[in-house]
Design goal:
Blueprint (H helix, E strand, L loop, with lengths): L1 E4 L6 E4 L20 E2 L4 H14 L3 H15 L1 H9 L14 E2 L4
Parallel strand pairs: 3-4
Antiparallel strand pairs: 1-2
Length: about 100
């Protein structure tokens, strides 16, 4: 929103502008990571690449933040997750890599 003074009426002219703001933000610093390998179809790969370019960040950051966003918004998943028993403390430790194949 911005205001300007109209010289003829001496009144403030207030207008709202729509500003495009990306949903995800670029990372402030490099977090500890785990390597995950996944398969994407061509369209998903292209969108991932373009969104990372748009944010000026890595595709890894886009995937990480998108997953956080989806998990936070999905109430059914949150309910399911809270009902799960901790089978293992952590299947992998930080910095250890594993492969995840999505089909």
């Amino acid at each position: 929103m911005y205001s300007t003074l109209d010289p003829e009426t001496k009144r403030l002219d207030c207008r709202k502008e729509k500003i495009a703001v990306p949903i995800l933000k670029a990372p402030p610093k490099q977090p500890k990571t785990t390597v995950v390998q996944l398969r994407l179809d061509d369209e998903a790969r292209e969108r991932l690449t373009k969104y990372a370019e748009f944010l000026d960040c890595s595709p890894s950051h886009v995937v990480t933040e998108a997953l956080k966003h989806v998990c936070q918004k999905d109430k059914e998943f949150q309910s399911w997750l809270s009902a799960q028993h901790t089978k293992t403390a952590d299947a992998t430790t930080k910095g250890e890599s594993f492969q995840l194949e999505l089909k």
